[in-house]
């Protein structure tokens, strides 16, 4: 009897082992079979933090992306973390369920899928919006739920500023991780050069502080490497004292263009006064009027700074002039009001050359020559903007161990070219992208012929089929790949977060 019981017990134990938990039992597979997927975030975090497709808040979230191409993308769910640990959980759930994700700060990337993902988890940082200043007022800390307006408004009350964006609604996340050209860039470098430290959620969900002395390799990579290395849950930026500044926009008709290009070139070349800032844009207004728009700033409350004398002496009449003494926050709302945030489909394209007066004129002429091929597109608002990466700015990119952008101060100053478009109909996508590429390639060919070409592509202005990481140079790209391999060996931020400019290439082909 005794031996019968023990045989039965053994048999049932063996059965139990195979039926209820085999020795190679896989918890992940079991959870997946139970229907755990990315929407399970709702069970863990509740309605306030997770929006799904049937909810009206889901629709209003998707409709708030800056570009229509990003609005067309429908995530499986939208997750709104409140703290770094929530972000960590989202990354791990995404890995567990093999569910792709995207992360949104200000949602101003025009790249389709840059910060929104079809059928995956779109992580929106909107609930992560703390802001603080250190007791010595030298470091301003903010989470990625902020736009530059809220950062500057807070900073102003402390009598300080940081080196950030120039349009109020742009997010702190994308702009800082791709570089960040600021009003104060000639004095301080790019936004990324002024990051003292980052709080980052890595691919394995670990939350780390990254600085020049902690994880220095990752710190270098994050300052221009985009979304390829982790999700940043806090930025700590060097702050500096600032009161009011002078600046605004002047709009001119075509006749002022030669004088404006002279002034642009001379201001871009000078090295004595890094408080000056400029963007010279060439635009087009229906039915066929060419306009020049110059955005001028002087980062002190000085209306007639000597360095601005050539611009101030241009005697062609202005159609509008908003220059004046104001706060940095007010300046950023000025650019918004001027149409920097036109609704519709959006495209940026960028390239760089050495700063050269003739090239500025040639590039402007190419833009206007090619324009008739697309000028009948409904809702078209195109603008060619020329900026200068001044010598002083380029030198500052070597601060704190440098950044991966591959910018050589000895080659400066550089002319940064951007064409920004908005338009209405998807049917016009292909010809507008092709127009952009024609203008770029003709301008680059002209630069090459003059020995003035330069490889750098600014990530924050790149078209979805451009490859900024490649433009950083082969040594920097190899270093970035090694760093990614160290912190993200299974390529979570390359494969599970496929949107935006990846280490191995552009996110999409030209339509
Ligand atoms: C109207 C307008 C004005 C602009 N003005 C300037 C300017 O003055 N200077 C300048 O340099 N550029 C400027 N830009 C370009 C701007 O820097 C880029 O469009 C940038 O990507 C926008 O950042 P965002 O956070 O709003 O975008 P998002 O679309 O939210 O993010 C862009 C990318 O960054 C990633 N990302 C965002 N936050 C994080 C994070 N916390 N961790 C990891 N990845 C993250 C996203 O996943 C996405 O891939 C402007 C753009 C627009 C549309």
Automatic annotation (TrEMBL):
Signal peptide positions on this chain: 1-16
Alphabetic keyword roster: FAD, Flavoprotein, Oxidoreductase, Signal
Pfam families: FAD_binding_4
InterPro entries to which the protein is assigned, alphabetical: FAD-bd_PCMH, FAD-bd_PCMH-like_sf, FAD-bd_PCMH_sub1, FAD-bd_PCMH_sub2, FAD-linked_Oxidoreductase, Oxid_FAD_bind_N
Domain FAD-binding PCMH-type: 71-242
PROSITE patterns reported in the protein's UniProt record: FAD_PCMH (PS51387)
SUPFAM superfamilies for the chain: FAD-binding/transporter-associated domain-like (SSF56176)
GO molecular function: FAD binding; oxidoreductase activity
Family: Belongs to the oxygen-dependent FAD-linked oxidoreductase family.
Full protein name: FAD binding domain-containing protein
